[in-house]
């Protein structure tokens, strides 16, 4: 698979499978993502896309009610 133009990494407070499942569900419904992973063990979500803005992905994750503790956009720390 070709590499995506953007990689967003989110540090998300997730304590159980329900938490990670909620994040997984909102990302699954987003159009324009090349791929994504949600990892309960590391409490992180990684999103790969060519077209979706960082802010749009951040807002979707926040709508789950999970705390986003930190984030990176293309390898650089950004505000949450």
UniProtKB/TrEMBL annotation:
The keyword Cytoplasm does not apply. GO terms for molecular function: copper chaperone activity; metal ion binding. Residues 5-69 form the HMA domain. SUPFAM superfamilies: HMA, heavy metal-associated domain. It comes from the Eukaryota. Pfam families: HMA. Gene3D superfamilies: 3.30.70.100. One of its GO terms (cellular component) is cytosol. InterPro entries: Copper_transport_ATOX1-like (IPR051881), HMA_dom (IPR006121), HMA_dom_sf (IPR036163). Keywords: Chaperone, Copper, Copper transport, Ion transport, Metal-binding, Transport. GO terms for biological process: copper ion transport. Belongs to the ATX1 family. This is Cytosolic copper metallochaperone.
